[in-house]
Amino acid sequence: MHLEIDLLRTFTVIAETRTLSQAAGRVGRTQAAVSMQLKRLEDAVGHTLCKRTGRGVVLTTQGERLLVHAHKLLHYHDDAMAELSGKGLSGTIRFGCPDDYAAVFLPHLLRGFASQHPQVMVEVVCGSTPRLVDRLQAKSLDLALVSLAEGEDDAIVIRHEPLVWVGYLGGNAMNQVPLQLALSDLDTLDHRAAKEALERTGKAYRIAYASSSLAGLTAVVRSGQALAVLTQTAVPPDLHILPPDSGLPPLPSVGITVKLAGPQPSALVEAFSRHIHAVLPLL
Length: 283
Known about the structure:
Oligomer: single chain
Number of strands: 11
Distance between the termini: 33 Å
């Protein structure tokens, strides 16, 4: 028994889309053919990999385990074929990344992909998740990392990041009444999470500063006059994550996933998406 690359590729698309019909469209086969491929893969590994529900398919525990290996095997397979055939991927990818993930995640994602596909150019656009989604819908981006609210589409989440309250050590922001906040756009998850948490506990607050950029928010926090809500990954070393006993209400986590501009991405976009899925959980 062995794992066929074609079956693994279809399986990863099923895992991403969570429906056989969407997976069929992505791989260019009929739904019946995709279902047959899934059955062949399950026979090969000796386990049920997906359970069908009214809303699509859900990976079993064995399916989740295989998915990790599938991403790695496809990654090595595609690299070997590109190198040995002399037909490495080339072209340009338009990639969106939220500001709060850029500093930590982007260097690793871009460096690793460039080492595998040196002829590919990645154009990066940074912005908040709602603005990146707008650009995906307008087809001015090919794919983007985006944040999801806690519990939203958990099946497609690649990584979770906690939201945290952030201040400047020695600043006066915690002592001000009402609490002074520095938040990003109204429709962003940090803005919504901060307001909902404070309103739930009845704590008075005022949005004193607004900025759509991470640099703007952290500059305000460094002044000591306001607190911000950031993903833990985005907190610079000179700023202070406020502990649970600070008197501020707890905040949720957010999920990180990849969204594509269309249902049938190019081979280049598909390769970069697979790269993100393989590398991001390890960072």
